[in-house]
TrEMBL record:
Record's keyword annotation contains Magnesium: no
Entry protein name: Protein kinase domain-containing protein
One protein family per Pfam: Pkinase
PANTHER family: MIXED LINEAGE KINASE DOMAIN-LIKE PROTEIN, SERINE/THREONINE-PROTEIN KINASE TNNI3K-RELATED
Organism of this sequence: Leucocoprinus birnbaumii
UniProt domain Protein kinase: residue ranges: 1-241
Stored SUPFAM superfamilies: Protein kinase-like (PK-like)
Keywords assigned by UniProt, alphabetized: ATP-binding, Nucleotide-binding
A molecular function (GO) term: protein serine/threonine kinase activity
The keyword ATP-binding appears for this protein: yes
């Protein structure tokens, strides 16, 4: 790349291609639940089908997992390796147990600490999301990444209004309160254990179950001033730990 402008153009083109592929693919359509494993994706669809898609070792993933081909018509529960489809026994959707809740609380608390630190340095992340979190190999440390603060999510109400009103990107009102909005969405992603980036995920049918639902709804208040502070969110998370004991 000759300069930063060329890099940004390439970055935007990659992002646009990624979203176009997701819009065209039927992989995540009409699903009840999904689980992303280390080298596979499990999906339970509304029609009762269970599909497991495996990555191909030492090669590019198959076209389906890369969103360059649709899931073909299936006659039953199936495993897809690359682009080859074989029959597979049904597997129940894993229940959300107490351990999952404890993990989500711990991870959300660590994320809150990371965002508090950023805000103390005058940094607004702009793109808090499950895709921008890393977990250490031992599962003990959560790491917040993608700190470029150039590209930001646009679903927060005040950001969406600025975009719709034609304001240039640099004038969109990202703030600690917009980070709170995206923090709520990230909690939902942590609890629900999936990350389907589709428009419906930010509305009524993407609400985590109790006891996380009240934190989610508080963070997604329309008025930024009505959203809780991160200190208040940490208190809510601590109350979940107390009530679970």
């Amino acid at each position: 790349m000759s300069n930063e402008a060329d890099f940004r153009l390439l970055q935007n083109r990659i992002r646009e291609t990624d979203m176009e592929l997701k819009d065209q693919s039927n992989l995540l359509c009409n699903m009840l639940s999904a689980y992303f494993g280390y080298d596979y994706l499990e999906i339970w669809y509304e029609n009762g089908l269970y599909v497991k898609i495996r990555d191909v070792p030492d090669s590019l993933s198959g076209n389906i997992l890369r969103l360059r081909a649709n899931v073909p018509p299936l006659g039953g529960h199936s495993e897809i390796v690359g682009d080859d489809v074989v029959d597979l026994a049904y597997k129940d959707i894993p229940p959300q147990g107490n351990q999952d809740d404890e993990d989500a609380v711990d991870e959300s608390d660590e994320l809150a600490d990371a965002v508090i630190f950023l805000h103390s340095k005058g940094i607004v992340h702009r793109d808090l999301a499950l895709r921008n979190l890393l977990l250490s190999q031992d599962g003990q440390d959560l790491i917040l990444c993608d700190l470029e603060s150039c590209y930001g999510s646009k679903h927060c109400p005040e950001i969406a209004r600025a975009k719709d009103n034609g304001l240039p990107n640099q004038e969109w009102p990202y703030s600690p309160k917009s980070d709170i909005y995206y923090f709520g969405i990230t909690i939902a992603e942590l609890v629900l254990q999936n990350n389907p980036r589709t428009p419906w995920q930010y509305f009524g049918n993407f609400v985590p179950p109790p006891p996380f639902d009240h934190i989610f709804r508080a963070c997604l208040k329309e008025n930024p001033d009505d959203r809780p502070t991160l200190a208040e969110i940490k208190e809510m998370l601590e109350s979940i730990v107390v009530s679970a004991e």
